[in-house]
Amino acid sequence: MSSSPLVHRNAQLHARQLLPRSWRCHPPAIHRASTPQQPSLPPQRDPWLVPILDSISVLSRRGCLFEAFYAYSWLRRRSPLPHPVLHPVSSLLACSTELRAELEGRQLHGHLISLGFQDSPPVVSRLVSFYAGCGAFDDAEAVAEGSVTGDSFNWNLLISAYVRAGFYWHALLAYEGMGRRGVSADNFTHSSVLKACGEMLEMGLGRGVHARVEKCSLERDLFVQNSLVSLYAKCGELATAEKLFVEMPDRDIVSWNALMAGYVANGMWEDAYKFLERMRVQGMELNTVTWNTIIRGNLQMSNYVGALQLVSQMKKNGSVLDSVTVAVGLIACSLSKAEELLNRMPIEPTAGMWASLVWGCQVHRNAEIGMRAAAKLLEMKTASLWNYLLVANVYASAGCWAEVFEPIGFQRHTVCFVVLLRVCAKLHLCFLLLR
């Protein structure tokens, strides 16, 4: 791994101290106490060590990256004695991953390289998660390829990240690269790869993975079985999916939902409803995924009344309404009822829920409800550019140009917005540079 371009780039970043602007007055300066020696525990006469390590961990979990970095810098400067770094740096990397602070994470990578810990198994796992979380998949794959452990854990992190991001072909290529390097795939690997095949409707590739699963004697694993049922169901081979489902020694709600989604995806509405009743008879506790699947099926049939009835039934059963369910309800009902639904929800509506209503008002040109929903969305103080674009479009379509340029909360964000405005039946491009 030491010869890869990734290492050289991170080493240069570390040496040049590329810090955010807000850190220049009080830089973390983690480079000052860097030492190539293996760190060891300090003597017991250092009573400050445990509290400062706990502080770094707590600050990282709370998302206070600057404060956690500063505490780690203080730890590195406090004494010439070497100190344990893997635990605090792992906490800092986890925080950087959560905040998608790519520059700070790369600096930590460079710091670990200077200490000689870049090949430590816990560090490699954190780095793969960090780069994948920031969308730097090439770097994540380079770290996984350079791992000296030879186990599948880091590759599983990479492949599952590819699948979550929708890069299904990349997941399959990583799976093949994993085999070329002699790393044995486990149940989690095959589960992610089967999901990628199902999302691409690649039945041929899926059968090849299924054959490998049987060769590895993993066909009895619950994760793998659920993925196989989902694969065959999505690709339209319901008979095979049902056969696998019946032969499963153990089933969970994921198993039932996989076959239910297959019925809905292939337009087998009667089978889907019968299967739903079968789930209830057998005492299965329906979760949000189950409800969303059958509700979306009603929308595909343009059965809006049935979709709303299912949303109401879902609420009566005590299931939590998520943003997908509410968005479905907004599509199915009128704008006024949608606004009432959000205002009377037992949980606090999310920004995505209000954004769905704003978008619906923009489509149907209902400025009155749209402006009320936009005000609610602005109260959320969301940092999503798309939400601000929706709000600005609603105000502009109503002719409220003052609200477009100075809406509540907009002045807190110095960013250039591109707002698409329909004026006099023409599409105009307006760049708003907000103070």
Structure description:
- The chain has 435 residues and is mainly alpha-helical.
- The protein folds into three domains: 1-37 and 47-149, no CATH class; 151-250, no CATH class; 342-435.
- The protein is 65% helix and 4% strand.
- The chain is built from 23 helices and two strands.
- It has helices at 5-16, 49-61, 65-78, 86-99, 102-115, 121-133, 137-145, 153-165, 168-180, 187-200, 203-215, 222-234, 238-247, 253-265, 269-281, 288-300, 304-316, 323-332, 335-343, 351-364, 367-379, 385-397, 401-405; strands at 416-423, 426-433.
- The chain has a two-stranded antiparallel sheet with strand order 1-2.
- β1 and β2 (426-433) form a beta hairpin.
- α14 (253-265) runs antiparallel to α15 (269-281).
- The radius of gyration is 26 Å and the shape is globular.
- The model is unreliable at 11-45 and 407-435 (pLDDT under 50).
- GO terms for molecular function: RNA binding.
- This is Pentatricopeptide repeat-containing protein.
- It comes from Colocasia esculenta (Wild taro).
- PPR repeats lie at residues 151-185, 221-251, 252-286, 287-321.
Helix content: 55-70%
Question: What order do the strands of the largest sheet run in, or round the barrel if closed?
Answer: 1-2
Count of discrete alpha- or pi-helical segments spanning 4 or more residues: 23
Q: Could you say which structural class the secondary elements and strand pairing correspond to?
A: mainly alpha
Strand content: under 5%
What is the oligomeric state here? single chain
Number of E-state strands = 2
Q: Indicate the low-confidence ranges by residue numbers.
A: 11-45, 407-435
C-alpha Rg, in Å?
A: 26 Å
Order of helices and strands: HHHHHHHHHHHHHHHHHHHHHHHEE
Termini Cα gap: 46 Å
